[in-house]
Amino acid sequence: MAKPLRLVIGISGASGGIYGLRALTILKRCNINIESHLIVTRNALLTLRQEFQINKKAVYELADVVYCPQDIGASIASGSYLTLGMLVAPCSIKTMSEISSGVTSSLIGRAADVTLKEKRKLVLMVRETPLHLGHLRTMVKLAEFGAVIMPPVPAYYSHPKTIDDIVCYTVARALNLFGINTNSIASAWLGINSIHKK
């Protein structure tokens, strides 16, 4: 069997840690040969406990490999460690700003910086609204560096029945950006006329 591909997933302290959790569960459900490498910040664990009553052990069990958020000597802090790229879901404004500065004091920032310098895919699910000019300029800067800015905006054309339907569809779209087939989770949009066909 071929060695698994690796995808780094960062969960920052912004509201919406469910996006990161769902990314981990979708990778398992799709039954594909991709290893999840997880970084969860201290603030993320606090937010997850507040929003979903989930503890650190339960979060860690969703991933294949877990790193201490301050371990800047971890394998994913080196460009020689091959990955598909990195998804930060959600991405707080603090994390976004650290990545854009290139002055990385945490593993989530360092891993993102490595992803950019190695020309790999970096997807940031920035979770903040409204956005002031400084936020927008930082996003432009990151886009110029090669990052994909993907706020978790709900899609209603898929006719979601639950909040989790909305979350899963959004995360599936983010994973698609890495070339990961998630059709078993969220079917591709076939056009408005397709909803009238039997």
Features of the shown structure:
198 residues; alpha/beta; six-stranded parallel beta sheet; 7 helices; 16% strand; globular; disordered C terminus
What does this structure look like?
With 198 residues, the chain is of the alpha/beta class. Helices cover 38% and strands 16% of the residues. It is built from 7 helices and 6 strands; from the N terminus they run E-H-E-H-H-E-E-H-H-E-H-E-H. It has helices at residues 18-29, 42-52, 56-60, 93-101, 107-117, 133-145, 163-176, and strands at 5-11, 34-40, 65-67, 85-91, 121-126, 148-149. A 6-stranded parallel beta sheet has the order 3-2-1-4-5-6, sandwiched between helices. Strand 5 (121-126), helix 6 and strand 6 (148-149) form a beta-alpha-beta unit. Helix 1 packs across helix 7 (163-176), helix 4 (93-101) packs across helix 5 and helix 4 packs across helix 6 (133-145). The protein is globular. It comes from Candidatus Blochmannia ocreatus (nom. nud.). Dimethylallyl phosphate binds at residues 157, 173. Its EC number is 2.5.1.129.
Give the strand content. Answer: 15-25%
Total strands: 6
Low-confidence stretches: 194-198
Alpha-carbon Rg, integer: 16 Å
SSE-based structural type: alpha/beta
* First-last Cα distance: 41 Å
Order of helices and strands: EHEHHEEHHEHEH
What is the helical fraction, as a range of percent? 25-40%
Side by side, the strands of the main sheet go: 3-2-1-4-5-6
Number of helices: 7
Shape: globular
Major β-sheet profile: 6 strands, parallel
- Average residue-wise pLDDT: 91
